[in-house]
Specification:
With about 120 residues, this protein is an all-alpha fold. It is built from five helices and no strands.
Length: about 120
Amino acid sequence: MHDLVYALKRLAEQHREGSFATQANRKHMLMLFGEQLVASGYTQLTVSELKGRHINRLLALWRDSHRASAEVHRLALGHVAAIDRKIAELDSIRRTLVDLTRRCHGDDRPDCPIIDELAGGGD
């Protein structure tokens, strides 16, 4: 079970409002929500990063049977753009790390370009 799904399960278990059926349904829905987020690529998301406005917006779209699919499409493209920015950021970090590991001898000598760069003394 992914950390986000587990955290949402625990959150549901901590809130005991309502009947047993209500509690079970809440837990089930939160776990499904978490699984869908993970499946959509939000693998690094934590419960504390979930914003009420995001969830409320998704719920409003889901409840509005007259909504235009263009609105959902626009929101999805916004998520794609955010993912693309994150990929570019991670790719830049990866390129830097690969370059540093190629310049590091990886032996018993104390000089290390990786440490130098992390310490701010790199080129």
